[in-house]
Amino acid sequence: MKIRWTHEALLRLFEIEDFISQDSPDRARKFVDQIIEHTESLSDNPLSGRTVPEIANPDIRELIFRKYRIVYRINGKHLDILTVFEKHRLLRIDEIEA
User: Fold this and answer.
1) Could you give the number of structural domains in the chain?
2) Measured by CB atoms within 10 angstroms of the end CB, which terminus of the chain is less buried, N or C?
């Protein structure tokens, strides 16, 4: 299954990298790379993430990586990464593209 990153998800990755880079640009790049690598496991097993509790739609799921939630949608032969955010927050519906 092909993984595609939405504009929203890429913006969130840039924000995460920008925030961490204030302390360590090298660590920031490595961390964002780790998030991306973590999502690659979904291409073989898209149902490995749990259903997002706030949405209760079986096609919208999430994968947890450290303190971040990676929200994705199973979309036919594609898997769309919708957003990435800190796991202490709840997902807002305006954070995911329709």
Assistant:
1) 1
2) C
The pLDDT tens digits of the residues spanning 10-23 come to 999 999 999 999 99
| Sheet strands side by side (includes 68-75) | 2-5, 78-86, 68-75, 60-65, 50-51
Q: Are 64 and 87 in contact (CB under 8 A)?
A: yes
Reduced to 3 states, what is the DSSP secondary structure of residue 3?
A: strand
What is the value of pTM for the model shown?
0.89
Contact 20, 27 (CB under 8 A): yes
- For the stretch 26-53, pLDDT in tens is 999 999 999 999 999 999 999 999 999 8
Q: Looking at the domain assignment, is residue 13 inside a domain? A: yes
CATH code (residue 49): 3.30.2310.20
Mean pLDDT of the chain: 91
Q: Strands 68-75, 2-5: parallel, antiparallel or unpaired by DSSP?
A: unpaired
- Give 5's contacts (C-beta < 8 A, 6+ positions apart): 13, 80, 81
